[in-house]
Amino acid sequence: MVKNSYLLMLCLAVARLGCAQSTVPDCSAGRYTTDVFADVTKTANVVFGYNNAIDYSTGATTPVTLQLDFYAPAGDDPAVARPLIILAFGGAFVNGQRTDLDDLCRAFARKGYATATIDYRLLNPGFFNLLAVYDNPAFLADEIVRAANDMRAAVRYFRHDAATANTYHIDPTKVFVGGFSAGSVAALQVAYTDDVTENPDAGIQAAYQKYGGLEGDTDLTGADKLLPTYNSAGLAGVVNIAGGINEVSILSAGNPPLYTAQGTNDEVIPYATCGAVYGTKYRLCGALPLQTQATQVGIINKLYPIAGGNHSSPRNTANSPQVAAEAAAFLQALVCPAAPLPVVLTAFAGEVPATDCTARLTWRTATEHNSRRYEVQAAADGRQFATIGTVPSQNRPAGASYAFQTAPLAGRQYFRLKMLDEDGTAAYSPTVTLASACLATPLVLAPNPARSQVQVSGLPTGSTQLFLYNSLGECVLQVSASVASTLPIASLPPG
């Protein structure tokens, strides 16, 4: 009886997250980073909540039934408690539907995640309603909170299932939220708003207070109601694709990790600053301010900037597979904290300044756990690499920046990083290729003057073309050379 009493007390204590079967995540054979499942099962039209949509021009309300589509790896072991990714579509809070993210949900599910794409309440597309919303930041703040509250209801729905029927076999402690554009704006609100008064936007505060507080008032009905037993707190992370938040200061220490992908020329939500969303008077902060704030407060984060990309670039056919792959790898490091070499490298580049012959290599990490050091390796042929220097790891969970300067560089050189973990395991970065016109040794031509031949030494490593010109500027000889060579000039006419 004593043991049973303690078990009951334990389940009551964690009921808000759900008492469910828990297993160590299966991180073998590339699960969560590669397509380990050939097919995906989809369960469509699952009702997770009810609420009302509002016409802001008239105040009229319309009942809305909120549904989701659930995706799971086909043939997965039902004993595995899978991490869950809940996604919301984009469309300026006016357009779009949950099936818009079908491809992204399937991409994650093939890697072993459980995924869901959800409805949320949209704006009435009538002219006067949209005019009222886009001209009044308080109305758009109200809509953002309503969409966020719908996503919170989806989190509660899955946590309740994990604690009861366990239909979906998810781990209620590893729930991620995210989306594209407007859907991601809602997800960022869900993940980073800890208190109804922490956001300085009066419109946001008023909306939370109007709609039932932080958890909102979207719910099932009757005996199926989940509030206040379950909540959406303690999320595992965020997948932010071209979204933004009105105030980055609400990101604070201890908040969920953040993955972001956005085009650097996004014309809807500013990438590098905080500013008005296109067509509205509402202010949002994009990828770069989010990354800066997350790094400053110690939130694990990764930014995938799509150079020159616009608002839709992360979702086009050229970039979407890479976004899904990078996000999956980022989440895998969170789901499987014991995975080897938990370093997320976000950038590795190099340059040879015109002022000297040295190469400057720089790199940036988004995540470092149990990281020991970085070995800088070089090769003249791109195959036989040797270590030329070592840089100790800062081992920062939120990542760090590094720089390394080489000895004088001659010709073409290939560089890479060997990233070593505390247990001795290692991984390698992509290769950076640099070329320099500098010479390792002085260029020497002898004898001078010469009659039959000229010895040339001090040439760059690799193949070099030598050209000899006469006094009229005409090329009279061309020779392929490497390091040292001989120019035969005996047969050339004088001059």
Report on the architecture of this protein:
Helix 3 (127-135) packs across helix 4 (137-163) and helix 4 crosses helix 5 (182-192). The chain is built from eight helices and 23 strands. The chain has an eight-stranded mixed sheet with strand order 1-2-4-3-5-6-7-10, sandwiched between helices. Strands 13, 14, 16, 17 and 18 form a five-stranded antiparallel sheet that branches. A three-stranded antiparallel sheet has the order 11-12-15, with no helix packed on it. The termini are far apart. Helix 2 (102-110) links the parallel strand 3 and strand 4 (114-118). By secondary structure, it is of the alpha+beta class. Mean pLDDT is 85; it is low at 1-23. The protein folds into three domains: 17-335, Rossmann fold, CATH 3.40.50.1820; 343-436, Coagulation Factor XIII, Chain A, domain 1 (Distorted Sandwich); 444-488, no CATH class.
